[in-house]
Amino acid sequence: MFQVLQGHIQPAPHRGRKTRLVTKDGRCNIEFGNIKYSNHFAYLLDFWTTFVEIRWRFVLLLFVASFTGSWFIFSLLWYWIAKSNGDLTGQNRTDGHVQCIDNVNGLTTAFLYSLETQTTIGYGGRALTGHCAGTVALIIIQSLIGVFINCFMCGVILAKISLPKRRAKSVTFSDTAVICLKKGSLCLLLRVANLRKTLLIGSQIYGKLLRTTTAPDGDTVILDQVDIDFMVDSGKDNLFFVCPLTLYHVINTSSPFYELSADSLPNQDFELVVFLDGTAESTSSSCQVRTSYIPQEIQWGFSFLPIISRTKTGKYRVDFSNFSKSVRVTTPHCVHCFETDADQKNHNSHNQENQDKRQKLGIDNLGFQVIDIHDSMDITKM
């Protein structure tokens, strides 16, 4: 039995407030508790990943603290050398006193000398005299540490800027999914678009259905995962991802959505997580884009509006204003209704074929008698 639905445009509904494992922008809503204190040291052992993954505010704080901290620590060492040698203002200097550092007569000037040394500014007002061996060793150590800090902080910032998940921000999914007929089957459809003209090479699309189930032994399984296969008209692997694609999942007996209907769908408790894996053409870095849909974001009996057209100049144009918009279409109330209606049509078609076949062969008339014709009949000659 089919639902006859009016054909008007349906805007994307408001996003539900149900708790998700994966947010619409792909972030995982999960936290870890009761971790042993010793396990926190694993973050320090893997310090590079820790620095790359921390937020920008902490990276900038680390950037400022590492440079200013090293300048100040070495300024204290330069100040100590100058004080030990009697170079500071107010110290009693003997005749013929040889300074270790020229124009370093206090903590402020020691800090300026440390900054100028590590950043290789070299104004010329403050410099080593070369009469103290300790100053030569200290300037070598500070120069090496300064180079290390420069390289490390530049590497962290560059790695953080070029993270593959930044490329994923230019790939977007439709706000809602729809269920309608496609190629003679009831399917769940959603859209994905690449907002850049550079391609994602080797793209693969798949989904996971997350729900709470009960095992045969009575145990409750939270976040039970079921594979969901998505396809496009050209296949499901190595997609030509140059324009928005409509993904579809066929709802058949092997689908976890097989028992759903238009009435029971809003009352379900599950989360459909969709993944798109690919390699960025410009950077050759792998990235993953993901989003999720809850039952309130799946529209039964709707179909997406077309968004691709051709201009007068021969170019293909994508209208993203209709990217998540849908329109009501005639759709079966449930999968069983669709299969029953299809079986009935097949049965009627089979009966019609048999009837047509009988009409072509003719119908036996029982009023006729069957007689035997013998070969020894007389023939009258003329």
From TrEMBL:
Keywords from the named record: Cell membrane, Ion channel, Ion transport, Membrane, Potassium, Potassium transport, Transmembrane, Transmembrane helix, Transport, Voltage-gated channel
Subcellular location: Cell membrane; Membrane
Protein name: ATP-sensitive inward rectifier potassium channel 1
Residues spanning the membrane: 58-81, 136-159
Site feature Role in the control of polyamine-mediated channel gating and in the blocking by intracellular magnesium, where: N150
Gene Ontology MF: a single term: ATP-activated inward rectifier potassium channel activity
PANTHER family xref list: ATP-SENSITIVE INWARD RECTIFIER POTASSIUM CHANNEL 1 (PTHR11767:SF6), INWARD RECTIFIER POTASSIUM CHANNEL (PTHR11767)
Annotated GO CC locations: monoatomic ion channel complex; plasma membrane
Entries under InterPro entries matching the protein: Ig_E-set, IRK_C, K_chnl_inward-rec_Kir, K_chnl_inward-rec_Kir1.1, K_chnl_inward-rec_Kir_cyto, Kir_TM
Membrane topology, from the record: Multi-pass membrane protein
Gene Ontology biological process terms, A to Z: nervous system development; potassium ion import across plasma membrane; regulation of monoatomic ion transmembrane transport
Any single Pfam family the record assigns to this protein: IRK
Residue ranges of every copy of the Potassium channel inwardly rectifying transmembrane domain listed in the record: 22-164
Catalytic activity entry: K(+)(in) = K(+)(out)
Location of the Inward rectifier potassium channel C-terminal domain: 171-340
Family: Belongs to the inward rectifier-type potassium channel (TC 1.A.2.1) family.
